[in-house]
Amino acid sequence: MKQFSGIKILIITMITLTACSSSTKIFKQKKTEEFAMQPLQSENIISEKEIAHLPGCVKKYLAYSGAIGKSKPQNVYIEFEADMYRKPGDKPMKATSEQYNFYGNYSRLFLMKASKMFIPFRAMHIYRNQQATFRVRVANLFNVVDLKGEELTIAETVTLLNDMCIFAPGSLIDNRLSWKEIDSLSTEVFFVNGNYKVSAKLYFNEKGELINFISDDRSALQDNGTMKRARWSTPVKEYKEIDGRKIPTFGETIWHYPEGDFWYGAFRLKKIIYNVKK
User: Fold this and answer.
1) Domains along the chain?
2) Residues 151, 152, 154, CA angle at the centre, nearest 5°?
3) I need a surface site. Which of 21, 89, 108, 181 has the fewest CB within 10 A?
């Protein structure tokens, strides 16, 4: 019996290592390609003049977050710890993730690692050249999700915009974004990347903190493999100063379905680095 248990543990370990190796290899390859195409350019320090066209609440947010007087983000590296839920009432699946976002030719490379009952899962989002793919692989044996196409690309464009608003507010001065002020604490932002245009409403508190991002342009993956449009929000809080920038370190991801809200993820920021060389 002990011998059987040892063999079982060995098999699980080998599967886990193989899955990690395969996913990490692909992720690193895409990262290397992106850095080769988008090396760091000369530094651009964000000035008051460059934010003059923004709505008042966004200007206040950039000042609060410390973006003014800092270098404009050309890329950012982010690590999270997360609790993920497949459906309401499920126990959370513990996960970690790492990602690289690029703001010249907009790109987002995201890899999440998790396991359930000792079986590893790897979820990879690749958004490059105005095209998106999403793949979830189990133990490097088969894909349980393998998506691409226009609806996914629209959804991933919203996700990229979300990252810009929350983790790289200095990127919001880009002329590929336009604005419609709602009131002193909220605004609507429109983001164009090639043929894709998405929007979201941003909500702030009196301090100048961004506290929520809401979009109707993102689609949720259904159990039958289809994509379904639904309102998506990401409330954030617990701002902390990191290298002179104030950044929210806790956020949630919520689908607002007609039948009720579904909190499917809770993320805690572990690391963030701006303008990585490679």
Assistant:
1) 2-38+50-274 (2.50.20)
2) 65
3) 89
